Sequence to fold (357 residues):
Amino acid sequence: MSAGGGSPSAEASTPWPAARLPGPGLWRRLAEGIGLRERLLRVAQIEVTTACGARCTYCPRGGSDTGIASRHMDAGVFAALWPLLLECDRVHLQGWGEPLLHPRFLAMARSAVRAGCKVSTTTSGTVMTRELAAGIVDSGIDIVAFSLAGTTSGTHDRARPGAAFDKVLEAAATLAGVRAGLGGSSPRVHLAYMLLAGDVAEAEALPDIMERMGVRCAVASTLDYLPSAAWAGEAFTEDGRPGIAAAREVLTRAAARADARGMRLHFSLSGEDGPAPCAEQAQDSVYVDVMGTLRPCVYHGAPGCTEGVALGGVPGTSPIDVVRGGLRKFREGLVGGWPEGTCRTCLKRKDASGAFV
Fold:
């Protein structure tokens, strides 16, 4: 299904297939509520579309010539994921694209909420309107994160030329304002901050930007997937440990300032917590690309990735069988130190010495 424009604020009137599927029954909800039953997965990340106009220079889709077509996830594919939704604590609707461009985004979110999931998304903010914001508030989504790659327009706009700094801040303010006007407390507005090695000093101003956006929580991430060798200098690789130390100092100060204002700034840098199987927590989650292929994480589905692991696809394969079969085997290898595919060289698997774990 090719992406053909449109927006969730003007959804088609045809019923969404997953809306007709049975949700978890009363006894199951009670058992889960009191801890007698656990769901199989912590998170399912679902790539609802690959369409995007942000043109992020560091993104493997926007920053490289991959020839990947813009597509929206088909309704039948999403409906086939229903058994998976029933076994996930959280569904995060986002992949290598702008999720709010899918014309049935809100229907997807409502379906996931009905399956008993907490639902979140990450957006560039480029298509936010008051009408769409009202739909998001009504949908039951509990977290909407806005992406930034700098705390000034010059830095951010250089990295994300299709998603202007001022536009992102305006979009966050629109959602927060509509939510307040409707008397709601959800969704919470978060900030997803891309910390590039050459712009570390700007992170000092993160608490100020969080206040401007009405954000109470921010997560600072580092560049883990290099669309080309030219981006190596913006990532914290084994040759950049002094840079990691400097970044940690800046982020620690910023986090303390945020905490003093009643906000939270989270960050994780290579080597900070010692050896770990995966900072992306692929051992407890699954990624579903726009075509319905289940993968260990979003990096296995990155455009141009030649070593990505594909575990199975829907329709045609039971997503629960994939989770209990191929994904379980993959996770055992990841935790045991014999990972597959792109995990062997992923920057999210670095210990304090810079060695892969």
